[in-house]
Amino acid sequence: MNSKRGGFRGVVVFLAMTVCFQTMAFAQVSGESPRAWQEQAVEYARIMSRVKWTPVAGGMPNRRGGYFEEGTEYTGVPYSSVKSVGRCIGFDIYLKTFLAAVENPHSVLYTENLSGEVSNAATYYGKVCSTFTSYALQCAVPYRSSHHGPEFRDGVVLVEPQSAQAAQPGDVIYTPPATVGGGSHVEIVTAVERSEGNVTAVRVEDSWPPTTRNLLRKASEFDSHISSRGRRLYRITDFDAWRQQNKAESFLFPNYDEDSATPAINRVLLLDRGDWVPYFKSQAVKFNVMDRDSRGVRTLVVKRGEAVVEEIPVRGRGVIERLFSDCGDYTAHCVMSGGSLSQACEFSVCDLDFSLPVEPPTRDSSWEIKFTAGNLNIITVYLMSPKPPYGRYHLWLTEQDRRHGKVTVPAGLVQDLGPVQVWLIGENKYGRLTRQQEVMIVP
Question: Model's pTM, two decimal places?
């Protein structure tokens, strides 16, 4: 890492598009050309692992302990298991939303801390190993690390032999938990180097505290790596069967085009959650008038669509807080002292809620989830058991479900008895929001 202190430091984004894939040795299957999804998986992994960013303030928690240092450049998005409390970079927010938040010293990155509130979390925006590989593998919603393999998914096999000589880009490495109930891990192979037909090195990338790792291992080192701790090298042989309905291209997020583009970060005004971001109606929007270039600000203008909501006189730099009761897409810009207009920030205000049955549902009966949403399109209900083997169940909503405001959980879908987390996930063009409740499944 290169250290640089003092003054404004523009965001430098070094993305996968700058990588020359012609130099990458993709192993071929039966003499065929590399499959498109493999190339995309490598490209998409590197959107998150090669991005560079520099904190402009202190107080951003680091999963290793302590804080990311102000003025120090980091590579790769921060590690944090945000779950439903924070926002997952790439799935819940754009990468540019995170980068905008980095440039605002009053953003949630510096004022919120999920350490101790959410297990395996620190920063309010972040990624973990499973969300990193799921993003690369073009999933709409992340798979748990232990659910990448054939025990839980179709279209994936154990690679034989388990060695560097058989590795291909797009393969995943699964590490089982060291203890019962402990954490597992997943990595993705992003390059295979060859000399005279033999594999000489394998590049592996993953999300690991504090940000991401990008390790080129010699063939012998790679073999030692996958032969220890019960690791398994998996290959997806049928991409559609492996993802099933969980396909990124079916939804608004992940949005790889937006994430791979270099964003124009507002130098006059930023929101506490960055820019290009959704808010719940219950969340105040905090506008930080920064005026980094000292042009002078006269007025903050907030609009809902084309209608002006409020014109707020501004005296110098500072944070202005507002709560909006109407769902919709908003913009905010500043009128400068000379009469020119600043770049606009974009955000949306949304509503999302759901109710569960009054009586605990039984495993062998169907039950309903009723929901309401404003300025969001509900994409799925996600049911999760918090205990091994961590059952995961998706209900992908239809247009009929959305019109009726309810979805039926089929009898026998959830096999786990006891507490099950229920997530309702909605999205719009600015990102995703999630509401969570817990239901007790009884015999």
Answer: 0.91
